[in-house]
């Protein structure tokens, strides 16, 4: 094992035998993982903490520097025994991740580098249900193309694209099986994007449900301390992203979290999915507008503008808006209590328009939850508003790509030309 | 590290320094884990597979033999280079685990050794709701006492007791927070049992929800291949045990799985939990008897006898029974579709009376699930009957104790006197 780890200058799966390559690949991630931790890091300290030899760590660090994932920070370590070593820190400035989101009413793109600098961020209104799937995917590809150009202009190479879709996704193939609010069925979006964007085989395209990706973004946010949380999207559709013991619950086929289609109102309206009285027919954005601001139904406002309008009317004390949001809060509480009784999360996080109008829906939802939580006071958890608003899913898209690189640094794109400005950092 | 692993004759946390002890303890589990795998095992083969030195493995095997978890099987390994070694196999015959179950209508006990021999199994009818908690716990302790005597008579020492309760359990303290069908609130059952049974500190007492333990038993059964499953108890109460990616989902406080108290019928009956129209009021055993065999309501039959009576009437073609079970099947499908939409399991396993009458409820439940599963055909999973019937929870109780010993062999009780019959096995 020591030889494989320590082998200098050998890179790529073809350079080292199968098992040794796998070991080196794993150790590369361990070393990068150490350097991601808060605090200062020398090669010697990383060796001590990982249990690898100093020679092995040196070789691995050389590779991480070549891959532009790590850089020497230029400061000297003082007061130690032996020759003072240079300190190491996360670089990541030349590796970028793109997050895309298709929604019923908008398309969004967000590009960041692995040092978490935002390189590009954009959202455009779009009527997803008005056309067949090829048009929104074409539009999304154009957005992505522009974003990739901006990313490259900033001196970064693309590691991958994470795509959020409001529907059921077959994650291994990147195919949207069914997205009721887009009227999509069996859309191989990963393949389409890969072809239109002419992406190389080394660029990951990861497609997932928007609620899953938003939950991942929320879970990974600095403010979060919960390892069990339920994230609820609040857009045209309502879905849940479930994090349990720090892991995303995808279920057997990746189709978990369809809380919006749990029937809660037998005397209710017909849902886009074909059933009657789904939770979504009571608390989706369309229902909220119909209930709290019916004059805005059918206007060209995008979800964020609608959410803002609802908030402003409630703040102005408009009775219809207040009564409508109270009604939304009650049904939201019904839905949340189902998730709480089944999953006992540490907190529920509201996204989308729920987050915008949270002061007007959370108190009623909490009251409903209190009366419905079987475990009583002990299991009642706070209902909080996401700080990420309508950007959560695209953030999650960049997050999964970044995590993939950190988990397996060989996925970082090779050959990034060091721009003059950046090359000084490691000189 | 090598020294700590290889140190011969050193045992127990006090014999080795903290870190070294932890490493040895971990390696003990790794070696035991190898020997648990199917196939033949020599010390040399275990060394090769674990990456530990032969000296280390020899020392660890000596300790596992002393703890009666492993024995030499007496056969010689042929055809290998070097001196032929003796083969090793799981012993476990002197270490026992007890599973206890408190239910609304019965108490049950099951004792097995770690070789999975059943040493004792008993169930007695009991009206849990008729008295305060101390009486059923007293009765349970008497059952356990007899069982422990039988276990000891069979030459085994007790590693621990796993207790299944139909309610919300604070797992770390072994306290039942709330069990609606027993009318229990804040019952420190682990502490009570430990005191009444005079158990030493080295004997584990693990309390958990009955559905959780039944799900663990189902997941660990030889026939099971699913790593995502939902287990539904079918007794007076209805609860779910959730296994996701091979892990039990406990939620933040251990209160997950309360599917029985999801409101499904706003015009329904009041539930023991205080709400109206809970799933349990539609598919609990009381509802089943009321709907399918009302003349049996209030009789002294225990749940298994009631389930059998329902089955016999349905098999005889009695219209009331058939119509009633069909109605149960429909509501069961409503409940299952909630779990499927939220969790997307690979299969749903029915326990308790659901399993007994499964031919008469599953077809209707499947029809309901098909019409309600958002993901359509792709996410519809089979609904199967557990083979463990009413014994699943007690089986899960012994299972968690056994797993604890396998995960950390230092938890196996020391000082088991080898009975004459058993000592021949390792001679």
TrEMBL record, chains A, B:
Residues 1-20 are annotated as: Disordered. GO terms for molecular function: DNA binding; kinase activity. InterPro entries: ATPase_NBD (IPR043129), ROK (IPR000600), Tscrpt_reg_IclR_N (IPR005471), WH-like_DNA-bd_sf (IPR036388), WH_DNA-bd_sf (IPR036390). Keywords: Kinase, Transferase. The keyword Repeat does not apply. GO terms for biological process: regulation of DNA-templated transcription. Residues 37-72 form the HTH iclR-type domain. PANTHER family: BIFUNCTIONAL UDP-N-ACETYLGLUCOSAMINE 2-EPIMERASE_N-ACETYLMANNOSAMINE KINASE, ROK (REPRESSOR, ORF, KINASE) FAMILY. Belongs to the ROK (NagC/XylR) family. This is Putative NBD/HSP70 family sugar kinase. It comes from Prauserella rugosa.
């Amino acid at each position: 094992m020591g030889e494989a780890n320590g082998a200098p200058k050998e890179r790529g799966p073809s350079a080292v035998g199968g098992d040794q390559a796998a070991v080196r690949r794993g150790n590369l991630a361990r070393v990068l993982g150490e350097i991601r931790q808060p605090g200062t890091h020398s090669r010697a300290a990383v060796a001590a903490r990982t249990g690898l030899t100093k020679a092995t760590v040196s070789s691995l660090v050389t590779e991480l520097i070549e891959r532009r994932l790590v850089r020497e920070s230029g400061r000297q370590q003082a007061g130690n025994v032996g020759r003072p070593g240079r300190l190491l820190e996360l670089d990541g400035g030349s590796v970028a991740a793109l997050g895309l989101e298709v929604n019923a009413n908008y398309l969004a793109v967000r590009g960041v580098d692995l040092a978490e600098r935002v390189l590009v961020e954009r959202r455009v209104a779009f009527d997803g249900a008005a056309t067949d799937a090829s048009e929104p995917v074409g539009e999304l590809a154009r957005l992505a193309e522009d974003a990739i150009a901006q990313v490259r202009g900033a001196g970064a190479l693309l590691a991958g694209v994470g795509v959020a879709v409001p529907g059921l996704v077959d994650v291994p193939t990147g195919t949207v099986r069914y997205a009721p609010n887009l009227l999509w069925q069996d859309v191989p979006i990963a393949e389409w994007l890969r072809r239109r964007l002419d992406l190389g085989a080394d660029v990951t395209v990861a497609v997932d449900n928007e609620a899953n990706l938003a939950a991942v973004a929320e879970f990974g946010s600095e403010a979060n301390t919960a390892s069990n949380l339920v994230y609820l999207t609040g857009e045209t559709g309502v879905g849940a992203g479930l994090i349990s013991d720090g892991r995303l619950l995808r279920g057997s086929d990746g189709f978990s979290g369809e809380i919006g289609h749990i029937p809660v109102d037998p005397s209710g309206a017909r849902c886009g999915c074909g059933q009657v009285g789904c939770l979504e027919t009571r608390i989706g954005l369309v229902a909220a507008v119909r209930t709290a601001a019916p004059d805005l139904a059918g206007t060209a406002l995008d979800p964020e503008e609608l959410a803002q309008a609802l908030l402003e009317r409630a703040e102005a004390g408009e009775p219809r808006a207040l009564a409508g949001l109270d009604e939304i809060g009650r049904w939201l509480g019904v839905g949340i209590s189902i998730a709480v009784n089944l999953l006992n999360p540490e907190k529920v996080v509201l996204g989308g328009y729920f987050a915008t109008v949270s002061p007007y829906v959370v108190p009623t939802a909490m009251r409903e939850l209190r009366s419905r939580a079987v475990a009583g006071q002990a299991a009642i958890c706070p209902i909080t508003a996401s700080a990420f608003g309508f950007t959560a899913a695209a953030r999650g898209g960049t997050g999964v790509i970044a995590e993939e690189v950190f988990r397996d640094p060989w996925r970082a794109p090779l050959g990034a030309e060091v721009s003059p400005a950046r090359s000084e950092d490691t000189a």
